[in-house]
Amino acid sequence: MNKTSDIVQPSLTKEELNIFLGKCKRDHVTWVSKVTDFVLMGKNDIDPTEVKDHTQCRLGKFLMTKGSESLKDHPDFDYLVNTVHPKLHRLGKEIFELKSRAETSFTREQVQTLHDELLDCSNHIIKLLDNMIR
């Protein structure tokens, strides 16, 4: 899914960076949609390998490379890297694990609360990426 050349470019032009961040947004929306379908409709199109930590998706890999150097001075960079992006992945993993268990020791309300938090994080990430693309 993620080509190495899409991730580790040491220096990107503004246009290349914008295109790349657009790809990250598309990946993000697709992943959040899969989690939402899983929560709301029980549709499990999520491969367990897709429920990764925040350093394993296209955006996370990029944020850990020198390719992200041009974004480090952006006022939202630290919040994206250290707070909202890791939280999104933690919530997605927690939702997947709760819903995948054979026993029903979780409540629907717990999953819905986690899902609401995930959607909130998702909206923040989209806004942050949009701000970085400008």
UniProtKB/TrEMBL annotation:
Q: Which organism is it from?
A: Vibrio cholerae O37
Instruction: List the protein's name.
Output: Methyl-accepting chemotaxis sensory transducer
Q: Which Gene3D superfamilies match?
A: Aspartate receptor, ligand-binding domain
Q: What InterPro entries does the record point to? A: Chemoreceptor_zinc-bind_dom
Tell me the ranges covered by the Chemoreceptor zinc-binding domain, including all copies.
28-95
Q: Which domain of life is it from?
A: Bacteria
